[in-house]
Structure formats: structure tokens, C-alpha cells
Amino acid sequence: MKISTIKDLLEADVICCEEELGAHVYSACGSDMMSDVLAYVKDQAVLLTGLVNSQVIRTAEMMDMKCVVFVRSKNPTAEMISLAQESGIVLLASKKRLYEACGILYSNGLVGNRVKNV
Amino acid sequence: MSEALKFHFEVDGKDFTSAGHASVMVKKNLRQLGLPPEKIRQVSIAMYEGEINMVIHAGGGVADVSVTQDYVEIVLKDNGPGIKDIEQAMQEGFSTATENIRSLGFGAGMGLPNMKRYSDFMEIDSTVGVGTTITMRVNI
Asked: What is the fold of A3-107?
């Protein structure tokens, strides 16, 4: 799914890296717990979260994620935006709640991902 | 690469915001060395979780990374409180982190299991009241 489609489906605002909206993502993860996110493996994923701190961007960076969607009208800080720009990670902000946002993307064909066994 | 490439980092235990900086640097360096993206991700995530743990639990520490022909080795050393029961600490969901840390998105009891998940070798050497040294290797 194109990141621009995610933006449209979630009626989201683009906060940074608009030039990457044409990139594709193939899986998604919705969580406020970053270690749960780090337990997942899949290329080119999008993270949906209501958590707002720099570690969200670091987590996305470690996972080679292309896009982070902040739900529940949360907005990232200037420092987070700067970190995301350095790595070319698209930041989107949506008014939808986490459950609803994940449901919309899932029902439109963006399925989840698997956990790598310990 | 006949000799190992080595990187050394001091991990500041007072600043949660900057936690992960060393892992970001390692990731950049490994990219420059041209390692496969999947291996770089394994190393980065394992080290990032370790770095976060050092900040959350041990007031910081030092991180040493060596890149050899066969593997990347990460050694994380702190002088924190130590781990009382390593077997228990390795269980997914077990955590001694405070509510404050949880509100920051960590402390879900996934840190150590994730470090094991992403490394091919992991050894924990910990003494209560003295500190913890964790050695991880990712084969390349």
C-alpha cells in the first residue's frame, strides 16, 4: 500500500518527508509499547502509535520503517521531526484512534506481520 | 577485513531522550561497511534494546562493538544493580521497570528476549550490587 493511500484512508496530515509519500509499505504494527514493535520483523512497515517521544522515531529507524502514524490527534515534537527527516521517515498525524486506524488499514488490505521466535 | 573494527561508546544514563544514540551510530557504520540490511537490523535492534536497558535500569554504561569477518560482537557493560534472577528476566513480559518507564513505551518485559531473538549468541554475566555485562554476537 502506498503511504499516500494511508494518508487518505486515515484522513491524516503530513508532518514531514512528503516527498516519500509514493513509497510502498507491506505490513503494519499498532502499539504504544516500543519493545513489542521491536519484536516484529518485516521490511517496509508502517508503525501506528499514540506514544510521543524520540524513542518512537529511533524504534522506527532501527526497524527500517518507512512511515509512522500518530493517532488520537497526537503531534510529534520538533526534535522527533528532525530525527525523522534525517532518516527519511514519513510522519503522519490522524484524529482516529489506534484501534480504528489499524482496522481501516487492515480492511483495506494492509495486513499485520509475524513475530520472530526466540 | 583481517583485523576487527572496533567502536566504543559511553551510554549516558541520565538522558532517556538521547538513549539509542550509540545504536544509531553503529547502524550508520555498518551500512558504510556494506553489511546486509537484515544483519544490520539484527545488530541495531539487539544493541538498541540493550542500550535502553542500561539507561532504564543501570544509570548508563559502556558499549563496545567489534566487527570481524564472521560476526559483529556487542559488549554492554554497566555498574548497575545487577539481575537477581536471569532466567526470570529472560521471560517475555517480566519486567521490573517503573510505571514511568512504561509510559515512555518501554518496560514491557521484551528487552532481553528481543536481544536474544536478534542475536545468534548471547551471554549475561551479572552480579547483584556489582553490575551486568552482556555479550551478543550476530553472525554475518
From this structure: 3.40.1390
